[in-house]
Write a structure and sequence with these properties.
- The chain has a single domain, classed as Roll (10 Kd Chaperonin, Protein Cpn10, Chain O).
- About 0% of the residues lie in helices and about 40% in strands.
- It is built from no helices and ten strands.
């Protein structure tokens, strides 16, 4: 389990269960050929860095927590429409389930 505090703020976030907090990577501002893209035509990246993780789901048979395979700092690829966008102290994050993550970039 980890918490995250946004820069220049005392706001902390602690995801619950199998939830993770992801800081989405910045959208490309120009194409490979050098053409600058307006805000409306930028694709939202499907990659980001995990800022905080929950403590795992509860195993209803044993009462023990099932730990997450992801950890704070992992760079991940996630599904297109995953997560809920939230804004904390002027920064945008995605809160999603661990199952929305497709892969860890190593």
């Amino acid at each position: 389990m980890s918490k995250t505090a946004t820069k220049n703020s005392k706001t902390t976030v602690r995801p619950l269960g199998d939830k993770i907090l992801v800081k989405r990577d910045e959208a490309a501002s120009k194409t490979d050929s050098g053409i600058f893209l307006p805000e409306t035509s930028k694709d939202k990246p499907k990659t980001g860095v995990i800022e905080a993780v929950g403590n795992g789901n509860l195993n209803t048979d044993t009462g023990a927590r099932i730990p997450l395979t992801l950890k704070k700092g992992d760079k991940v690829i996630f599904t297109s429409y995953s997560g809920t966008e939230i804004k904390l102290d002027g920064q945008e994050f995605l809160m999603m389930s661990e199952e929305d993550v497709l892969a860890v970039i190593e």
